[in-house]
Amino acid sequence: MKDASPQTIYLKDYQPFPFRIERVDLTFRLAPKTTRVISRIAFAPNPERAGRHDLFLHGEKLRLIAARIDGADVPAALLTVTDEGATVAAQALPDGPFLWEAEVEIDPEGNTALEGLYMSGGMYCTQCEAEGFRKITYYPDRPDVMAPFKVRIESDMPVMLSNGNPTASGPGWAEWDDPWPKPSYLFALVAGNLVNLPDSFTTRSGRKVDLNIWVRPGDLDRCAFAMDSLIRSMTWDEEAYGREYDLDVFNIVAVDDFNMGAMENKGLNIFNSKLVLASPETATDLDFERIEGVIAHEYFHNWTGNRITCRDWFQLCLKEGLTVFRDQQFTSAMRSEPVKRIEDVLSLRARQFREDMGPLAHPPRPSSFVEINNFYTATVYEKGAEVIGMLKRLVGDDGYARALDLYFDRHDGDAATIEDWLKVFEDATGRDLSQFKRWYTDAGTPRLSVSEDWRDGTLTLTFTQMTPPTPGQDTKLPRVIPIAVGLLNPNGDEILPTTILEMTEATQSFRFADLASRPVASILRGFSAPVVLEREVPASERAFLLAHDTDPFNRWEAGRALAKDVLVRMVTDDDAPSADYISALGRLLTDDSLDPAFRALCLRLPSEDDLAQTLAEAGRSPDPDRIHTARETLARTVAERLVRPLALTYDAMADRGPFSPDATAAGRRSLRVAALGLLNRIDGGARAQTLFDAAGNMTESAAALACLIEAGRAEAALPAFHERWKGNRLVIDKWFMIQVVHAAPHQAAEVAERLAAHPDFDWRNPNRARSLLGGIAANHAGFHHASGAAYRFYADWLLRLDPVNPQIAARLSTAFETWARYDADRRAMVAAELQRIRSAPGLSRDLSEMTGRILG
Ligand code: 0A1
Ligand code: ZN
Description:
The chain is built from 26 helices and 31 strands. Its EC number is 3.4.11.2.
């Protein structure tokens, strides 16, 4: 989308649309370059907006063929058409209800931005969130305008799908009816040569629902896990939230070209094929877990997003935060709760904290935006979910359940706001949440510092909170912070079980009296609030918590903090790796009472980006080379000192029976490959080679390949892997990514250049572009190499991608969001690349907004 002067849109300017829509009828005559869309839309005045109004309908890249009101052509003088839409002057409109009819022509094949109606591998599909429907026909493309849709599709494709229930079909046509009023962003259409995996589900009130997963012929043998995940999601949502499905069919379609992960269109979810297709040979355990989680996420949107949608896009976290929270609960229920919590916190810190500390920081509910597609962020999604977790901690499980019941009762069929959401909690629990609301309106991650005072059998914990300034928000008021605390006596017995302290002031003390001896405090258990805990803790206390904490999250956290302390000292003071840390790790590794997945997480050293962030938080400029060297040295030292237990673990965790994707088997594999990653530093890739040659599943195969690259002996493995998997796009994506992620820092840009010239580098495919570019950005020392070669390579590709798919270019540009952390030379190189991008003629609104904000 080219736009000379992109406009900022403000939450405070919200006004309801002057018209309501009673029903929508759409006919599609599909043709790759010339699809006709005929719309009939029954409008009526909206009583919330008195007076007469022009009718403005969004529309972009449409060729208008005819426009009629109540059967008569709209006079040319009363119809204004621009790049953004069509306006019918008020005097052309009757006082009461009227019928708008339009015929437009669109070009799905030429739609490389993958927004609106486009083609992927010969099939037609749509993506309408957030503002794609306006590229299909003229419409008030905003989430607060909801209507029932009827759709007729005419094409020579064997399968034609849309939202709702199928009503009739014949040779070359099919009709669909969606009785549930929905906003246009939930519209979907698919037509193609597809095959389906069918199943069914009977809801607890007895409605039989036909389930289908539609894929390209040849992919059918990789859908079973997704179907199983769907059925488990439907069951769980009934049990945990009392939510039933509400149509006769639920269709999922997998497409290869998709900008995001998946989309919750009513009754017709469209998925990136990487989040549907899985077999043991082609998908890693992480892929399986993501598929399960995203299938659940999209299904859960049926209530939190579709039945109750958002009034405007500023409220995006209303549906996304809640739905992420629900999918996290689901995964915890299906797998291990502590392991899931640790994984979520790792991802929160890596993505959301990083965002919150840089130039792109914004509140979960922003108050302005230029391009809404740039706000599908970790803050809206993951922090949005954390805020709900805190609400639940504050009001308790019963309060949460009452509030949610009230939310569904009160707002079913509504386009709601964050105010509506908080009000149901206030009404259901009697709490005043006005201070809590700051979590939605303020950006930035609070820093929470703690001091301890011990005297006369009383422990006093004094907390101070401070949130650094973020763009446009210089001063911050104190927030409500639920701090989960437990106390352990020196033997490791719990003397105070987890208790929630409710902090509301800038500084606040909490007392624990009548204690026989000085306890050890376990603070922020379960990561009860998304804050940075700043606390000087002696290594001995961390080691004690790592050995004894009864809260598994904090047990892991203690080990992680120890590892970080060690690594930071190695980077800043050239310290030797700490023997205490390594022996603590050794004890954990061999503790068979602990879940292997948990042990695997403990073995994983903090990432280089995480260390850079930690150093930056402490006001130091991180040196990527030193960080890389320190981490490598620690990994090698751990491997040398723990070679025996690591080798035993590696052997013991081998799969015993047939492959299972379940959490237990996946946890064993993750411990096995974590041990392999360390041993690989000292066995010259010997184990990796054996595993690569024998691996029967992708988790081990991909891990072995990565190890071989790191050991510098992948010359045979890389072509062998390519040869074996050249027919499978998803596996070839991995082949691209692994090579750049694991390349030595000084070679990373060169490897990326070489791969970009590979005939399989189909960069118009978002997954493929993300594999290579996301891969190099994830190679911290490679991306930030002092030569600046990776910065240049990356910027070149953003410029190339932007005219083709601005959304993808803009998302990838976040690799530069941390630039201000680094030294002056690196900062100058990144700034020059960002300026080069900004000066490109015809830059998209998406990338222009992002580069502008990143530069600050
Ligand atoms: N609502 C979807 C994510 C999504 C958002 C935007 C898209 O295109 C710009 C596509 C999908 C979800 O949360 O799963
Ligand atoms: Zn979502």
